[in-house]
Amino acid sequence: GEVKSYDWNVEYMYWKPDCVESLVMGINGKFPGPTITAKAGDTILVKLTNKLHTEGVVIHWHGIRQLETPWADGTAAISQCAINPGDTFLYNFTVDKAGTYFYHGHYGMQRSAGLYGSLNVDVADGAKEPFAYDDEITILLSDWWHQSVHKQEVGLSSKPFRWIGEPQSILINGKGQFGCSLGGEFINGSTKCSQDIDEQCQPEVFSIQPKKKYRVRIASTTSLASLNFSIGNHTMTLVEADGNYVQQVEVDSLNIYSGDTYSVLIETNQYPSTNYWISAYQIARKPPHPLRPGLTILNYKPKAPNPVLDAPSSSPLPTPPLWNDFTGGKSFASKILALQSDQLTIPKPPTSFDRRIVLLNTQNNNSGYIRWSINNVSLVLPTTPLLGSLKYGLLNGLDSEKPAEDFPANYDVMKPPVNPNSNSGGSVYKFDYGITIDVIIQNANVLEPHTSEVHPWHLHGHDFWVLGYGEGRFSSESSNLNLKNPPLRNNVVLFPHGWTAIRFVTDNPGVWPFHCHIEPHLHMGMGVVFAEAVNRIKTVPSGVLECGLTAKTILADSITS
Length: 561
Ligand code: C2O
Ligand code: CU
What we know:
Layout: E1 3-15, E2 22-27, E3 36-39, E4 42-50, E5 59-62, E6 88-95, E7 99-105, E8 116-122, E9 135-144, H1 149-156, E10 169-172, E11 206-208, E12 213-220, E13 226-231, E14 236-241, E15 244-251, E16 254-256, E17 261-267, E18 276-283, E19 294-300, H2 326-334, E20 355-366, E21 369-374, E22 377-379, H3 386-391, E23 423-425, E24 428-431, E25 436-442, E26 455-459, E27 464-471, E28 488-489, E29 491-494, E30 498-505, E31 510-516, H4 519-523, E32 527-532, H5 548-560
Parallel strand pairs: 1-4, 3-8, 9-12, 11-19, 20-25, 22-23, 24-32
Antiparallel strand pairs: 1-2, 4-6, 5-7, 7-8, 9-10, 12-17, 13-16, 13-18, 14-15, 14-17, 18-19, 20-21, 25-30, 26-29, 26-31, 27-28, 27-30, 31-32
CU-O-CU linkage (C2O) binds at residues 60, 62, 104, 106, 259, 458, 460, 513, 515, 517.
């Protein structure tokens, strides 16, 4: 492969993502950050300089497995020390597999502050995708609050608890419109935006040629929102999920949760003198009224130059689904299956597991502080990066408690917790090399009766097979798992009051977080860490672990040697 080098400066800038001026975290003066386009097998070098005045920064490459480079995963307090203001750090890793990915901040709530961008990997020269297309477009979905992330973080960890609320705007490629809607005339209680929209919040219009086949890459880096995505009048053929090929299936819309990526194919075979809407409606949580979907335009070339504000009226806005249509959500999720192909080898799961871990997801009230916990432990990260503490055996950097692999038989997942209290700490599960792990993510009722939330779970360092979803409490006797054609993914939804089962093989030494991708939930403790064959982690470059206890160890090492 090729080596692709980038020089990035991360800084706060004044910006109007949804026409309201705020501070965003930009890269090289851009929001969202620049798109990386590479080919499978390429090496990516990102020289990242922290131009924030008073806070550290890291960037995580979401969906990239970091084979042999666990230190480049970009997770503060896990894979590396946060990069200090003024410092530069070099990320150096291989993008081994074609697919649709993205990158984002992974320190505090820097993703919600706008630190993200797209990362597209094409097949290597000479290799072929199992589908054909003429051209492609890239869509990055996110959500946006007017309140600063610092205020959000403090509110979430305060007593009394201050919830951040629903986002002010849904952004498509970093652009939204607050206080009006491009589709105002179609939305009850909404007003149409006027002609003079600020340049920074003008929708990115996708201009396409008629009678062609397009690949649309869609990634969601939302902080909170689950979205239903569609392209008016155009059916979409699903071909890829999280960097893995899936069975081709036609859909009118797709449900995309935070951390998911998809590719769909569309044919530009509609009447070319009309514009068509691209829409992203909030689902899974009660949306605000009036509805504020993310909107932009698919525009057939050649068309009038200002398609946004006059032309779209001629085609209707896609219909919003019911926000609480979980039946529809489950039926969409179950349509995603691995591609069966004679041309490509799509890895199949081992037929049995060596170790099964059940992770109960609860919402807790710890003396007035609202937290999320996994098997009764709410994640608090240590000051020394776990990769360092584990590799060098620094016991002071670790929680000595061995985390639970199941939860009590009498726990009722349909009811609020009887004892709402939980513990805080670092739940580190240690795995030997080369074994098959099953994880059952088990949802439960939150503190309020008759309520359970959606949580998209994301694993670093791996793809996993999604073996199935079910209602209520998982039971090994009666819960059906798909071992025939389960899709490989790195992100998977957990439905309210239900369970999700995944399987993976521990073939990638590293220290990998497994967490809810909803950023306020992770901030409130919703995650665990998988320490995988740590004894096989090779040496890490200097600069990765020069903080906390590892700084002293490395220093002592260099003095004695
Ligand atoms: Cu995209 Cu740990 O996250
Ligand atoms: Cu969550």
